[in-house]
Amino acid sequence: MVGGSVAVIGAGVAGLCASLALAKLGVKVYLIEKQPKLGGLTPQLSRVFPTLRDAKELINPLIEACRNHPNITILTEAEVRSVEGSLGDFTLHVSEASQSGGQTEKTLKASAIIVATGLRPIDAGIVKEYGYGRNKNVITALELERMLSSDGRVVRPSDGESPKCVVFVQCVGSRSLRSSEKPYCSKVCCMTAVKQAYELKKSLPDAEVYVLYTDLRAYGRGWQELADEAKACGVRFVRARPSEILEDPETGELTLWYEDTETREMVELKADLAVLNVASTACWPSLGDVLGVDVDEHGFVRPPNPLASPVDTSRPGVYAAGGCLGPADIGEAVIQAYAAVARASEALALNIGDGRSILVVGAGVAGMTAALALARQAFNVYLVEKEGEIGGLLRRLDRLYPTGEKAEQLLNWLAEQVKSEGKIRLYTSATVKKAERTSRGFLVEISAKTGEETLEVDAIVVAIGAQPYQPLGECGYGELEGVITQIELEERLKEDRLGTPRTVVMIQCVGARTPERPYCGKICCITALKNAIQLKQKSPSTEVYVLYEDIQAYGVDGEAHYRLAQSLGVRFIRFAEANPPRLLYVEGRKVLRVEDSLLGREITLSPDLVVLSTPLTPTEAAAGLASLLGVQLAPDGFMRVTDTKLMPVDTPVDGVYVCGTASGPATVQEAVAQAYAVAGRIASKLASQ
Ligand SMILES: Cc1cc2nc3c(=O)[nH]c(=O)nc-3n(C[C@H](O)[C@H](O)[C@H](O)COP(=O)(O)OP(=O)(O)OC[C@H]3O[C@@H](n4cnc5c(N)ncnc54)[C@H](O)[C@@H]3O)c2cc1C
Ligand code: SF4
Ligand code: SF4
Asked: Is the beta carbon of 188 within 6 A of some atom in ligand 1?
C-alpha cells in the first residue's frame, strides 16, 4: 500500500466510486456512512434514466466491490463530529454505533477527505396545498420508486387498487420564493417524472398518465429522446401547476385544479394517485461547520474556484463530489467522484504516472485540464492540437457561466501552466494519423508542424470538443443582415464591437430538438441567459427578448440566472414547437412574428439584432478519429461512452477516455470536472494493472 489514507464521507454512488478508485490506487480508505446500509439513494430507485437500467444492478456490484476490497474500512451508522489538522494530516473525530446499541467515539487519521454526503428530498408536507400526509393517495416520487422497485406493482395506498389515472406534479418545493421552499431547480425531477410516467404507462397501458410541469428539463444525453418516447406512448405532458389537491375521504378519489397555460382553460381533473416530485436539499446540513468548508446559502459546498477546480472546497485537502455540491444525477455525481480522486491523488503526491505516457487529443479547456491533472500525477503527456493555437472554443467566448469571469482569464491561466509544465509536450497544428494497439497501450503516429512522430502511450484521452451548429438558411441566417448565432454574439461582446442595439431577440432551439437533431443542446439556454444578462447590464435601455420552448435553467446557478435575467427586464416569450417564430424582411426592416403560447396572441417585434441559440454538434474530425481508435459514435454523433452513469468518461475501447464536449454538450465547469475525472480513472485503472 502507498502512503497516506483518505476519509470518504457518505457511501452513496459518489462515495462508493471514489472509495473504490482510491483503493485501487493503493490508498487506505475509511468509508464513513451515517445509515446502516451502503448505497445512499440509488438502491431505493427502480430504474435509472435514460437507459432504464435496473438501479440495483448498477449499485450492488459497487457495494460488493467496496465491501471486499482490503484497502477499504467501512464504518456504518457513523458520523463525523469534528475535523482537525490540514492536508496530509487530518484527524477526524467520528461517532459510531457500538454493538451494545450505544455510540463509541473513534479517531481516524487521514491525509485527505472526500465529502460525498448527497441529497435528500425535502418534506413534501411543507407544500400544504397538495395535502401530503393528509391525503392518502398523494405520494412522493421516492415512494413511487420504492413501489416500482419492490414488486413493480403500483397501487393506491388507500385501497391497494391499481390506479386508472396518475398525475405527476413537478417543481414541488423547488423554484419557489416561499421561505420554507427552495429557490433553485432540483435538476433531476423532470427526468424522474419522465422515467416513472413511462414505466407506469408501459405496465398499466390503460391508465391515463399526466405530467403537470412548468419547463421540461430534459437536457442530458439521451434525456430528450426518452421524453419524446414517453410522449409517443401516451403520457400527457401538460404545462400547468395545480393550485390544490383534495381527496374524497370515502372513495380516495383526488381532485386537482389547474390552469392549462397553453389553452388558458381552468381544468378540474379527477385522479387516483398523485406523485409529487419534491425538491432536493443537502443531506448533511452541518457539513460546512463540521468540515470547516464554505457552503452557499442552501448548504451546498461552495468551491472557491468553481470553473478551474469544481470539486475543491475552501479547505485544502478536502474535496467534494455528488449531491453535496448541488443537485446532480448519478452520472454527474460519478464524474465528480473521479475528479475528487484525481485531486486527492495529486495532493497526496502518489505519482502513479511515473514512467507512463498519455496522449491527449485536443487542447481546449478539457484537454488542457486533463493534461495538467495527468502531469501533476507524474504522467508524461503528449498534448496534440489541430489548430495553430490552444484554447478551443474558450478563445471565442466572452464571459463564463456561472461566475461571469472572462474566458480569456481562464484560458491564459491554463495555457501558461501547459506551456511551463515540463511533463507536457505540446504539439500544435498536429493531428493523429494512425493508432495501433500494443501490449502496453497504443502506438500512435502524429503529424505536426515539426514533422511526423511515433509515440508509445498507455492511454488516450479524446478531448476534441464540439462545434456550434451553423443554421444556414434557418431563421434568415446567412441571408438577412443582423442575424447571428450566440457564438458570434460572444465574439462581438468579447471584442467590444456590439454597439448599443435597441432591440435584441434571441431564438432558442434553432437546429435542436428536431427530427434531424433530436437531442437538447443543454447549454444554449444557459448561454442565452448569460448573454441576455450581459446585454442588460451593459445597456439597460436595450430591449432583450428570449423566445423559447423550455428554458433549461437547471440547478442552483441556472435558476439564479433565470431569475436575474427576469429582474433585469429580459422578456421571455414561450412559443409552441408547432408554431415557431417567423422572421420577415419588410420595407428594409426585420420583423419577427411570434405566437405567445402563454398569452395566446401574436406578438410583433422589430429587432435590430436576432441571435440564434444553436446546439453544439460533433466536430468534423470526430468520425475520423473515432474510427482510428475503434470507438463507435453514439446516434447523436458524439463519442460513445461505456455507461453514462457509472463509466461516463470511459469509451467502450479499453484505454480510450473522453472528456468535455467531445461526448456531448457541457458547460466549462462540467467539462473541467470530466477532465479531472479522466485523470482519476486513468490513474486508478493503470495503478491496478
Ligand atoms: C425520486 C428520485 C429519482 C431519481 N432517479 C434518478 C435516475 O433515474 N437517474 C439518475 O441519474 N439520478 C436519479 N436520481 C438522482 C440520484 O439519486 C442522485 O444523482 C445520486 O443519488 C447522487 O449520488 P450521491 O452519492 O451524490 O448521493 P446519495 O446517493 O444521496 O449518497 C450520499 C450518502 O451519504 C450519506 N451521508 C449523508 N450525510 C452523511 C454524514 N454526515 N456522514 C456520513 N454519511 C452521510 C447518505 O446517507 C448517503 O448514503 C433520482 C433522485 C430521486 C430523489
Ligand atoms: S428538474 Fe427543475 S424544472 Fe424539473 S421538476 Fe425539478 S425543479 Fe422543476
Ligand atoms: S435552446 Fe438549447 S438548451 Fe434550450 S431547450 Fe433548446 S436545445 Fe435545449
From this structure: yes
Domain that holds residue 164: 121-280
Query: Residue 633's pLDDT is what?
Result: 96
The preferred substitution site among 41, 42, 119, 149 for testing ligand 1, maximizing ligand atoms within 8 Å of CB, is 41
Q: What is the pLDDT of residues 480-519, one digit of tens each?
A: 889 999 999 999 999 999 999 999 999 999 999 999 999 9
Q: Which amino acids bring their CB within 6 angstroms of ligand 3?
A: 219, 508-509, 512-513, 520-522, 524-525, 550, 552, 613, 615
Write down the pLDDT at residue 262.
82
Domain's final residue, options 263, 280, 297: 280
DSSP letters, 240-277, are: ---SEEEE-TTT--EEEEEEETTTTEEEEEEESEEEEE
Instruction: Name the residue at shortest CA distance from atom 6 of ligand 3.
Output: 509
Ligand 2 pocket test, pick from 119, 122, 187 with the greatest ligand atom count within 8 Å of Cβ, gives 187
Among all bound ligands, the one having the nearest atom to the CA of 284 is: 1
* pLDDT given at position 2: 53
Name residues whose C-beta falls within 8 Å of residue 632's C-beta, 6 or more positions apart in sequence. Answer: 626, 640, 652
Q: Is residue 396 a part of any domain in this protein?
A: yes
**Residue 166 confidence (pLDDT):** 98
* Boundary residue ending a domain (280, 300, 322): 280
Q: How does residue 3 score in pLDDT terms, banded at 50, 70 and 90?
A: low
What is the torsional sign of CA 508, 511, 514, 519? negative
Dihedral over Cα of 682, 684, 686, 687: its sign: positive
Give the ipTM of the model, two decimals please: 0.91
Look at the chain and count its residues.
689
CATH assignment at residue 496: 3.50.50.60
How confident is residue 150, by pLDDT bands cut at 50, 70 and 90? confident
